[in-house]
Amino acid sequence: MIYVVEFPQQGRASAWFTFGQQDFVRKIYAGDKLRDYEIYDVASARELLDSVDATPETADVRDKFPAMCALADRYGWDTVLYRADYLFGAGVFQPIAVSEAAACAGALAKRLKACRVYWNDAEATDAIDNDPIFDGVDGYWAREALREQLVALEIVEGL
Fold this sequence. Notes:
Layout: E1 2-7, E2 14-18, H1 21-30, H2 36-39, E3 41-43, H3 45-50, H4 61-64, H5 66-75, E4 81-83, H6 85-88, E5 93-94, H7 100-111, E6 114-118, H8 121-130, H9 136-152
Antiparallel strand pairs: 1-2, 1-6, 3-4, 4-5
Helix pairs in contact: 1-7, 8-9
């Protein structure tokens, strides 16, 4: 399970869970204003060019697709490039590897005042007593929301 604690801009913190990474990214994509490929994409400059039915040999390719050609000039036509707009900026492709889950966590964080993603039961259980995000009044409600999720899923015992 993956557990998410959200601190909205206004109102009380809440918590929710997903059954795994695939479920997590599906929920993030479904609730975001950006297109899926803007949240996360992996492609080479050649593949990007192919997506618009062009090749490096296409006539006037540099005039028609200067950004894609600039990526190829900088990184080569076949270097794997990652796009994660919430982490790197809008439309930025770079060779620094990022996972789809990390890109989706970045998307989630941009929607909220704060959030935490715990990638498994052990992290979530440990966080109840050790994550400083639960300090203060807002943190109290967030801790209780996470604890309720863990109790409901029988990961920890209720009090």
